[in-house]
Structures are given as structure tokens and as C-alpha cells.
Amino acid sequence: MGQSINNQTWVTEFILLGLSSDWGTQVFLFVLILAMYLVTTVGNSLIILLIRLDSRLQTPMYFFLSVLSLVDLCYGNSVAPQMLAHLLSAHKCIPFHSCVLQLYTSLALGGSEFFLLGAMAYDRYVAVCHPLHYTVIMHGGLCLGLVAGCLVAGFSNSLMETIITFRLPLCHNVINHFACETLAVLRLACVDISLNQVMVALSGFLVIMLPCSLVLFSYARIVAAILHIRSTQGRRKAFGTCASHLTVVCMCFGATIFTYLGPRSASSVEKEKMVALFYAVVAPMLNPLIYSLRNKEVMAALWKLLDKFR
Questions:
Q1: What confidence tens digit (pLDDT) does each residue in 44-92 have?
Q2: How far are the Cα atoms of 92, 136, 255, 272, 289 from residue 244, in angstroms, in the given order?
Q3: Prediction pTM value
Q4: Where are the beta strands (DSSP E) in 158-309?
């Protein structure tokens, strides 16, 4: 583990307690998470491939979707492979530098995804409220700029949180989590972490509330625009362009807001694990399913690709 001086430990590796100590439960979780991981990898890779190959999907909305799928693909790979290996291993250790890298990449990709959902909400607002000027407003330069801004915001926030987390002296190296997660690592500190927790909470609040505010503003304008459409078919068509994105937004933001605004209790650590598992494994798997099953254009592109192989 390292040397100990005045209760301070120079950590070279961390021990992860994981989701369960029961062997039968670990095997069940391995099979379940492996299946989800495979669906995540195939689903998101397929979305990226379809958007790349089908000319009908060369629009701003699908450009953002391809970036979201890429982020989900990378996010799943930042946590799931190591978690799967540990589920079948008696020695659940991760080197210090790997722990730092895992925390940084998962935070960066998670933050980038929230900002991307905000950018996608703006795209839907322009498509519904300004359909005649959509291609002019959402030009290639703006789309690239929005994506770059989302990634810079996510990775910058992650760098700050990672530095705050690992600059503290640690008393031991046993992490009560299945991955290197900010609050779980902070609990290992030998000093008062109240200020660090406030800074991390403020950082998380900004990462969640800034894109959430953009989503709320965009959908308020979208709903107002849809209510002014006289025909029922026109309303359904306008809402249909937003349905998949709105489903993903409610799923991602809803889980986070419930976690951070809910009452703190003795089960908070276990709740943190469940939420982390949701974002690392479940959400990246559901996103491509939601966007493909609810989207006729994506399904048409998929059948077109399958016909080529036939």
C-alpha cells in the first residue's frame, strides 16, 4: 500500500470494496453488467456508423447524437472493464495513477454529456421554433463550436475536481465503491474535508444546473411553439422530433437531481454506488436504444445497412 507517517499514508494502490462481498451476487452482477456493456458497445458503435454512412442522417441533430454516442462509448469503457475484472477477482486493487485517470475521465465524460444534452436541447429549439432558418442558424461551425465548448467545460471541471480530490493526505487506501469516485476518495482523507465537499458540490451543481437551465428554457419555448400549431398532426410531428431527447434528459437529469436534492441518510454511500452504476453502465446502454427504437430515420438507416449485407 505504501508508507505511513503520522497517520498519513503514501498510497501506491487502492482497494475497491465493490458492489457486494457475496460470491454468488458477484457472478450474477458480472453476467448482467457484461450483457449491458456489450449492448452499450454495439449500440453506440452502430449509431456512430449509421450516421457516418447514411446521407439522410447528415444533419446537426444526428451530428450531436453521434458525439453523444461516442461519449457514452468512452464513458462505459472508463469504468465497466475494470469493474467486470474485479467482480471475478479476489484481489480488487487499482494502482494510484490508474485511479486518478479513471476518476478524471469518468468525471470529464459525464460532465461533457450533461452539457451535450443542453446543446441538443438548443438544437431542438431552433428546429421547432425557427424551422425555416434551421440550417442557417445550426451551421457546421456553430455545431463544432458547441461540441468543443461542451468538451472543454466537462474536461476543465473534471481537472479541477481531480486536483481537489487527490491533493489531500490519505489515512488509508480502502475505497467503499466499485470505482474511483470523488466523494468515495475524499472519505479517505486524514483532514477535514468540509470545504472540499462544498467545492465538489458547487462544481457538480454548476455542471448539472447550467445545461438543465438551457434545457428548461428550450423546452418552454418548444411547448409554446407547439401549442400554436393548429393541426394535431403538426403537433405530433413537432413533438416527435424532441421525444427521444426529452426521454434521455428526464432519465439523466432526473436521477442526478433526485440524488443530490434527496435527504442524506446512512444509506447515502450505497445510493451513490447505485447512481454511479446507472451512469456508468445503464445510461450508456439505454441512450442508443431510446434514439434508435423511437426514431424512424435511424431504423430506416439500420434496415438499409442490413439489406446491403444480405
A1: 999 999 899 888 888 999 999 999 999 999 999 999 999 999 998 888 8
A2: 38, 24, 17, 26, 10
A3: 0.88
A4: 174-175
